[in-house]
């Protein structure tokens, strides 16, 4: 979540290429801050017990794959709300797990974000945010909704609405586990992959109370919670845009995580075999694999304007 009060203070924090604002080149990029504030992006019930380094490695690969397409959308949103503001950019990160919150704070201490930027990480729950109403210009929710109990998602949207300013922007990366494809032309392999994602992964999530199809459902939910959806785009994380081994490593980390979850919850482990078969396809340099990730932005309806 951010209060953007200066239009040219987004700063590069991890040595990657700069972006450009209305006032010229800036030293800006947010993955290191996002990784510090995000914590783990998986449910411990769904994926078993992941150590911090595994979770962060998985998240880093996701950021690397998505950032080229997502950064343009985020920068445009920041510039839009930054017009005619004051002198500082304030960023607040919220993490539910106390140990992970402390870990995020430690990582944040090693990152230089610039004199005009302040970053705070707080131990809090997304269903009960410790902030005043109408406080933020932008709220970001990335790789999170698929890992929380589906019943609390409306509460998260309500809290995001409460702390967002009128006409403020909310930005989501909302995963959908079935938006994963390969170029396989073998009907048996295609059916195998369908069984993996629809039965092995999605059904497991449903049994454990999370919604792994939230990416396709979220636009309608935002409409129902008095947001106005501005756009829904789909970032393509594939074997063309990302180093093939990076994509293999991502799916291998998922396989390990879900295997732990299946074992922990005593779920049929045959899906682990299907996961191995899927990874073999991704590793084949003659094949193509794609993870399509929904990215969307909405604005809080200006209640005075629409009353």
What does the secondary structure layout of this molecule look like, with pairings?
Blueprint: E1 2-4, E2 20-21, E3 24-25, H1 31-38, H2 44-47, H3 52-82, E4 89-95, H4 98-109, E5 117-123, E6 136-142, H5 153-163, E7 164-173, E8 180-182, H6 187-207, H7 214-224, E9 227-238, H8 244-264, H9 270-283, E10 289-300, H10 303-306
Parallel strand pairs: 4-5, 6-7
Antiparallel strand pairs: 1-4, 2-3, 7-10, 8-10, 9-10
Helix pairs in contact: 1-4, 3-8, 6-9, 8-9
Q: Which descriptors would you attach to this protein?
A:
single chain; 307 residues; alpha+beta; 5-stranded mixed beta sheet; 3-stranded mixed beta sheet; 45% helix; 21% strand
Structural class: alpha+beta
Principal-axes shape call: globular
Strand content: 15-25%
Topology-level CATH name: Rossmann fold
What is the number of helices? 10
CATH class: Alpha Beta
- Alpha carbon gap, first and last residue: 26 Å
Main sheet properties: 5 strands, mixed
Order of helices and strands: EEEHHHEHEEHEEHHEHHEH
Q: Tell how many strands the DSSP assignment holds.
A: 10
Q: What share of residues is helical?
A: 40-55%
Q: Low-confidence parts, pLDDT < 50 over ≥5 residues?
A: 5-44
Architecture overview:
The chain is of the alpha+beta class. The protein has a single domain, classed as Vaccinia Virus protein VP39 (Rossmann fold, 3-Layer(aba) Sandwich), CATH 3.40.50.150. The chain is built from ten helices and ten strands. It has helices at 31-38, 44-47, 52-82, 98-109, 153-163, 187-207, 214-224, 244-264, 270-283, 303-306, and strands at residues 2-4, 20-21, 24-25, 89-95, 117-123, 136-142, 164-173, 180-182, 227-238, 289-300. The strands form three sheets. Strands 6, 7, 8, 9 and 10 form a five-stranded mixed β-sheet that branches. It has a three-stranded mixed β-sheet with strand order 1-4-5. The protein has a two-stranded antiparallel ribbon with strand order 2-3. A hairpin with a 2-residue loop joins strand 2 and strand 3 (24-25). Helix 6 (187-207) packs across helix 9 (270-283) and helix 8 packs antiparallel against helix 9. The radius of gyration is 20 Å and the shape is globular. It comes from Rotaria magnacalcarata. Residues 82-171 form the Methyltransferase type domain. InterPro entries: Methyltransf_11 (IPR013216), SAM-dependent_MTases_sf (IPR029063). One of its GO terms (molecular function) is S-adenosylmethionine-dependent methyltransferase activity. This is Methyltransferase type 11 domain-containing protein.
